[in-house]
Design goal:
single chain, eleven-stranded antiparallel beta sheet, 22 strands, globular
């Protein structure tokens, strides 16, 4: 596998990321709903019109942004397509726990080039080495015999083995009848170390200024939960057990998060030099979205919890100089937003985006 990675490294260092800045993905024929690569050499982006989109480094979901290489490595880029335009909304990282030690896919160095971020790549099955291209257009199936019109797009996401021996991989799915939802199923290769947990965490809640966390009997406000915190580190509190999660009509545990701000407030940006120099944190979509996690009823155990942390200032890498940080307008917001559960091979999570406000989504979910 790593010999294949090293051969590709030479390509990566001669400007390939710039190629992907200019093209997010090619749609299939106009009468279909899917966003898929045209061929194996296209940028690695998959999704559905009017719904969720997922991509891998070095592809940028938003096209040509100066200085961009599609965002950090070691992450799934999760976006939303509306009216022909895709916007990046969040990232999802992979965080395996082995013998009490947790690794972070976006900040641990690659064994290929020593740069931060594990290499992720797509495949139509569980074999093959790294490529910066799509490798596969994805597989379309009909998962519901009672509704043969429903289609499901699936693709495998493979990644470098972690330093602690963890060797997980993902199967991503999007269903045509649930366009706002991304299925993420976790597996491990046979040579993987035993994982106590393998968290999938949405890492960029500050971008959407997520401040309201909806549980069964209460709404947690990040401004109150992290009130008074004004440092550059993450603020952490205890997780919430599955017993406190919402349930949808099928009995699935669900947790939702949204901004407390109106769209006009969310889209505004301070007009001062420190903020203008960090405009990539400005919220760019022309709509608000509710974000949520879900698990299937009966498909989880009592270890399932909701975990959030917070930040009062936007992330600025590992930089310890506080002058490189700017305050999140409006106060502390949730940054990492995730479900955690004891690992088992094949466990399934769903991450969703909806144009509906959380209260409206809860009523009809």
């Amino acid at each position: 596998m790593f010999n294949s990675m090293k051969r590709i490294l030479a390509i990566l260092t001669v400007g390939l990321p710039a190629l992907f800045q200019t093209s997010a993905a090619q749609s299939t024929a106009a009468n279909t709903v899917w966003i898929r690569p045209e061929n194996a050499k296209s940028p690695p982006v998959w999704g559905i019109h009017g719904g969720i989109v997922v991509g891998l480094w070095p592809a940028s979901l938003e096209g040509n942004i100066p200085g961009s290489e599609g965002g950090p490595r070691g992450l799934l880029r999760v976006g939303y397509e509306l009216n022909g335009v895709i916007y990046l909304i969040n990232y999802i990282a992979v965080e395996p726990l082995v013998d009490g030690d947790m690794e972070f896919s976006e900040v641990r160095p690659s064994v290929v080039d020593g740069k931060l971020g594990k290499l992720f790549w797509a495949a139509s099955d569980t074999t093959g080495g790294f490529s910066p291209y799509a490798n596969t257009t994805g597989v379309i199936t009909h998962p519901d015999k009672s509704h043969p019109e429903v289609e499901e797009l699936s693709v495998y996401i493979l990644m470098e083995k972690f330093a602690d021996g963890a060797n997980p991989y993902l199967k991503l799915t999007i269903r045509s009848d649930k366009p706002g939802e991304l299925g993420l199923q976790l597996f491990n290769h046979k040579n993987s170390a035993v994982m106590q947990r393998c968290a999938l965490t949405a890492t960029m809640g500050n971008y959407s200024r997520l401040r309201l966390l909806y549980l069964k009997d209460k709404v947690i406000d990040s401004r109150q939960l992290f009130g008074g915190y004004d440092d550059i580190e993450f603020a952490e509190k205890d997780p919430y057990p599955v017993s406190q999660m919402l349930r949808n009509k099928s009995g699935d545990p669900v947790v939702m998060a949204e901004s407390n701000e109106s769209f006009n407030q969310l889209a505004s940006w301070p007009q001062s030099p420190p903020y203008l120099a960090r405009w990539h944190w400005r919220y760019r979509p022309f709509y608000k979205l509710t974000q949520y996690w879900r698990v299937d009823a009966g498909g989880y155990d009592s270890s399932l919890v909701v975990r959030v942390n917070g930040r009062a200032k936007y992330w600025s890498g590992e930089n310890a100089d506080k002058s490189n940080y700017i305050d999140v307008p409006g106060g502390p917001a949730f940054e990492n937003f995730e479900l955690r559960e004891n690992y088992h091979n094949g466990q399934q999570f769903y991450f969703g985006l909806s144009l509906k406000p959380a209260k409206e989504l809860i009523d009809g979910f």
